[in-house]
Prior knowledge:
Elements: H1 21-25, H2 27-36, E1 44-48, H3 56-63, E2 68-73, H4 76-86, E3 95-99, E4 112-118, H5 127-136, E5 138-147, H6 168-186, H7 197-203, H8 224-238, H9 241-246, H10 249-258
Parallel strand pairs: 1-2, 1-4, 2-3, 4-5
This protein binds S-adenosylmethionine.
Amino acid sequence: MTPLVxxxxxxxxxxQDVRSPQDRCYxxxxxxxxxxxxxxxxxxxxxAGCGAGGLTGILAAAVGATGHVWAVDRDAAQVATIxxxxxxxxxxxxxxxxxxxxxxxxxxxxxxxxxxxxHVLHGVPDALASARELRRVxxxxxxxxxxxxxxxxxxxxxxxxxxxxxxxxxxLNAVEVQGVQQWRRAQPDHTPYPFGWTQLLLxxxxxxxxxxxxxxxxxxxxxxxxxxxxxxxxxxxxxxxxTQRYLSPRxxxxxxxxxxxxxxx
Length: 265
Ligand SMILES: C[S@@+](CC[C@H](N)C(=O)[O-])C[C@H]1O[C@@H](n2cnc3c(N)ncnc32)[C@H](O)[C@@H]1O
């Protein structure tokens, strides 16, 4: 179990300003994941689908001053934001941020010691082709590390939240999974891959495939940051246009109560 810590203390200065409350709350977990990879100092790493850079800084710290991290995301706005923040830190020579799609990466074959792809493949139209591309840019003997939610999604509410109908979070999670699936299926090049992540790694030619589960426990009393994360999560799913269609008026009212700072719930 990860101890309760105020995660900003653990995080290298890179990208602190752009990270979401979730990234900041998860920082201890991210540290644990990257530490588990035991990256050699000086390694060349690709952070594929880097998002707001929640893990980019941790990867950069892990490979040391002689290592390099290339961070790629297809969202040009995210890339521009990280790029601007990088210019104000001591990491600008060590981290390169580029716009790009993981289906066709702007790198030669045999480039990276580690390709890290966190919370991306579940949302791409063709996970197998994307993983093949991630594998292509690995050096011989390099490692491809995927991070995905396997068995469960964050559980932030008790089963019986004591407000509304029990099981609200299960319904929210189901709607969230459904939303991702619908988005994927609506893509013109959607190619289903229903065999799981470890099989995917084998199918793209990886060997010595393994899996490891990391768990973050956040215990009350919650810090302001943790409360911000809970609120972000509930509003992020609960107020999404698609979600609204699938939730009952009572569930919607419960979310409104739980995310209203003025409401006693
Ligand atoms: C849920 S975020 C994860 C961000 C980060 N890796 C993390 O774990 O915090 C998913 C990110 O993947 C990016 N993404 C999705 N599909 C992509 C693709 N085909 N190529 C590059 N980036 C992609 C999105 O723009 C988004 O920033």
